[in-house]
Amino acid sequence: MSARYRQKIHYRVKIIPINKIRVWDEAQARTLDREGIAELARSIKNEGLQNPPMVQKDGRGQFLLMSGQRRLAALKRLRAKKIPVLVLTKGYDLENAKAASVIENLHRRSMRPKDMAHSCSFLAEKMGVSKGASSLGISRQTFKKYVGFAALPSQLKNLVPRTITSSVAIQLNQLVPNVNKSIKIAHRISRLDAKTQKSYLRALSRHPRANHSTLLRQARLLAIRKTLPVTLPKTYAKRLEKISMYREEEPEKLAQQIVVSWLAKRKR
């Protein structure tokens, strides 16, 4: 987590009624993994609560949850009436709480792309791309992809991950502003392998008005391997070997230079 969210805090341990704890709106709207909450509840039941949720006084005997949404959900599942909490007295605010909660939830397994994208957008706004990516242990490029995914139309988001990947959805949205058209293309390329999909999108960027058959043909041409095996007649193989020894170069490298030079001349 960024240094901004590591500031020194002060709290005291207190046992309070669980129904006095209020969850901030954005967290309340978040869908929690039921299986993960059930597993956490079993762990708390068997081993006890190792790390109490953190709260802050919210007036009229109420407390606002600052971190520990999953632990609170697990305790509610266990039907706990009163629970130990860390009541903050200094050094934390709601924005810090949101960032901490987001990071805590992002580190859990099986997070949906939509939730990941929404949370990364929040962290990008509050912490910046570099610090947000660092706090989650992911690259800047991956972090930025999730942020870009958050801006997609909901119809495209719904195709991820069953029909297309998030990166393909982002590219489609950039290349084809018309949502209905981009959805149609998504379904058409969903059965292609990842390499051909990538080539298809490259072809689409070059020829935005081309029909599907033309783009598919172009995609398959673009997907041809850059390195091709070449079999030479015995006479030419020996000649290549002699020249490479004279030049003190690898035969493969020399052959590549010859082919590239020949293709360059043919282009003129």
Sum up the structure in keywords:
268 residues, alpha/beta, 5-stranded mixed sheet
CATH architecture of the largest domain: Alpha-Beta Complex
Shape: elongated
Kindly report the average pLDDT value.
80
How many beta-strand segments?
5
- Give the SSE string: EEHHEEHEHHHHHHHHHHH
**Helical residue percent band:** 55-70%
Written overview of the protein:
With 268 residues, the chain is an alpha/beta fold. It has 3 domains: 3-93, Conserved hypothetical protein from pyrococcus furiosus pfu- 392566-001, ParB domain (Alpha-Beta Complex); 152-222, no CATH class; 234-267. It contains 14 helices and 5 strands. The protein has helices at 25-29, 34-47, 69-77, 94-106, 113-127, 129-136, 140-150, 154-157, 166-175, 179-189, 194-206, 212-222, 234-247, 251-267, and strands spanning 10-17, 21-22, 54-57, 63-67, 82-90. The chain has a 5-stranded mixed sheet, with helices on one face. Helix 4 packs antiparallel against helix 5 (113-127) and helix 6 (129-136) packs across helix 7. The model is unreliable at 1-7 (pLDDT under 50).
Give a short overview:
The protein is of the alpha/beta class and 268 residues long. The chain has helices at residues 25-29, 34-47, 69-77, 94-106, 113-127, 129-136, 140-150, 154-157, 166-175, 179-189, 194-206, 212-222, 234-247, 251-267; strands at 10-17, 21-22, 54-57, 63-67, 82-90.
